[in-house]
Amino acid sequence: MSHHRYDALFGTGGIGSGVFFALNGSHTLGREESRSGRFLDRRDYCKLHIIAHYMQALMGTGFVVLPIGMVGDDDAGKRLLVEMQEAALDLRHVRVEPGGQTLFSFCFVYPDGSGGNLTVDDSASSHVDPALIREAEPELAAYGKRGIALAVPEVPLPARAELLALAARYGLLRVASFTSGEIVQARDTGLLAQVDLLAVNRDEAAALAGVTADQQPVDLVWAAVNALRRLQPAALLSVTAGMDGSWAWDGRILAHAPAHRVQVASTAGAGDAHFAGLLAGLATGLELSEAQELAALAAALSVTSPHTINKEISRPSLCAFAGAQPTRPSPAVCRTLGLACTPPGPTC
After folding, report:
1. CA distance 130 to 128
2. In sequence order, what DSSP letters do the residues of 117-145 get, joined into one string?
3. For residues 204 and 306, what is the distance between their CA atoms, to the nearest angstrom?
4. How do residues 300-341 score in pLDDT, each as one tens digit?
5. CA angle at 5 for the pair 191 and 45, rounded to the nearest 5°
């Protein structure tokens, strides 16, 4: 992936881990109920770590990925720092909070695959503030229009707002996602108007548009597009919808990318893999609809792993995966991956 449009990603969001627990029985967990189950062999990671990892894996060592966040000085935080260093992430702005607890989630899963999670709200990530963001201002200024600023959940909104404000000052591409519970606040406070590219899932898109999530996906996406255009007419939008695929609005055209059919080990983290693939595509110079194709490939390959980071994903592995699909990507995506657009197949 040479001749980049962007050379660096600066991101703030949660850095943490979690465990998965498979419940016995399909009925909803009661308020005072004790339920048996078992821990699953799945490693869970938080949004910023997932996106940053995949960006570095897809873009290579010539691309700078600089997370801005906090971990505790516990064993979980130490382990995550080692993993992030092994992924070649630039950790100069990841702080260790003395006496702090690293962000942690307990995810419970019912036999049908549905479930929920419990997440600590007083972790080191919850203490990321605008002052920590401002420490990265010299690097943001140095990259300017060659940089991407990423603001994602699991750190407070004021810290994310500060990153987006600095990005506006220095001309970086401003990209963000918000939870369903946050997106109305982000809309009403004007924070969404500071975003150049918004990436959301079906439920978050419904919250943005003020509609229910049970309508036809394309109708839901159009409702989200129209809601976003009222706030930020020039903003781009990406909406993921599981097996229904994903949609991308570039300001003129709404493009749909179908989901690839794969053997699914776990869908956890697929949306973050999609987001990373989208950003990697844009960073290499792809148009939004083309970057969305790359994102769909990354999301599909991510769910073949039980872990929320599939550490087998790289440019060569994504190239091989794309080459094995019934339909080849567009020529621009093929060139980005190093994939031959005609038989005999991939040249990774």
Report:
1. 7
2. EEE-SSSGGGG--HHHHHTTHHHHHHHGG
3. 24
4. 999 999 999 999 999 999 999 998 888 888 889 988 888 765
5. 55
For the residues 227-233, what does the mean pLDDT come to? 91
Contact 278, 294 (CB under 8 A): yes
Say yes or no to pLDDT of 157 above 60: yes
CA atoms within 13 A on the CB side of 267: 16
Q: Following DSSP, what letter does each residue of 2-59 receive, concatenated?
A: -S-S--EEEEES--EEEEEEEESSSSPPPTT----EEE-S--EE-HHHHHHHHHHHHH
How far from the centroid of its chain's Cα atoms is residue 7's Cα?
Answer: 18
DSSP 8-class letter at 230:
H
* CA neighbor of 48 nearest in space, from 301, 306, 272, 300: 272
**pLDDT of 345 above 80:** no
Residue 257, SS3 per DSSP: strand
- pLDDT (average), residues 224-244: 93
Query: Is residue 62 exposed (0-12), middle (13-18) or buried (19+ Cβ within 10 Å)?
Result: exposed
> How many whole angstroms separate alpha carbon 103 and alpha carbon 119?
8
Q: Which among 158, 139, 157 has a CA at the least distance from the CA of 149?
A: 139
Residue 267: pLDDT over 90:
no
pLDDT at 2: 44
Tokens of 140: 């943001």
Decide if pLDDT at 153 tops 80: yes
Positive/negative CA dihedral, 256, 52, 107, 99: negative
Q: How high is the pLDDT of residue 104? A: 93
pLDDT at 335: 87
Single out the residue of 152, 182, 185, 145 nearest to residue 167, CA to CA: 145
